[in-house]
Amino acid sequence: MTKNFPDNNADRDLRERFAALRREDAAQTPAFTSLVRRAPRKRKPLWPRFAVAATALGVPLLLAALLLVRFYPRHQPPAEVSITEWKSPTDFLLETPGHDLLRTVPSFGPWTAEPAQPAESPTPAGKKRS
């Protein structure tokens, strides 16, 4: 790398400065073993935090349950109803336009037991019968 750069004095100066900075940092940092041997600090117990969180979540849920039980209408069991009297809530969807016509039988007049008489066929206009 130094072949590409003709000024080697600048490189040497930078190396010396970085080495001085490393020595200064090393002098200020404590030894790793002294950090490991240091007694751990006392940690606060976690259960008070969990208790606060549980209370914050539990109280509104409990209030909601109590209000629901208090104000929700209680349904009485229905009296015994026959299945034939039950009406589907969606029966109205099956009622088509003109459904009353399908529920009645058309009437064509009185019934006669005599066979029907063939009517005279009409003659075309302009033609005479021979």
Overview of this structure, please?
This protein has 130 residues and is mainly alpha-helical. The protein has a domain at 1-38. The protein has helices at residues 8-28, 32-37, 47-71, 99-102. The chain is elongated and about 140 Å long. The N and C termini lie far apart (133 Å). 0% of the residues are buried. The mean pLDDT is 81.
Measured by DSSP, the beta-strand proportion falls in under 5%
In total, the number of strands is: 0
Note poorly predicted spans: none
Order of helices and strands: HHHH
Counted by DSSP, the helix tally is 4
- Euclidean distance between termini CA atoms: 133 Å
Question: How helix-rich are the residues, as a percent range?
Answer: 40-55%
* Secondary-structure content class: mainly alpha
Tell me about the biggest sheet?
none
Mean model confidence by pLDDT: 81
Oligomer: single chain
Shape: elongated
Radius of gyration (Å): 52 Å
SSE blueprint:
Elements: H1 8-28, H2 32-37, H3 47-71, H4 99-102
Tell me briefly what this model is.
This protein has 130 residues and is mostly helical. It has helices at 8-28, 32-37, 47-71, 99-102. The chain has a domain at 1-38.
Supply the key terms.
130 residues, single chain, 4 helices, mainly alpha
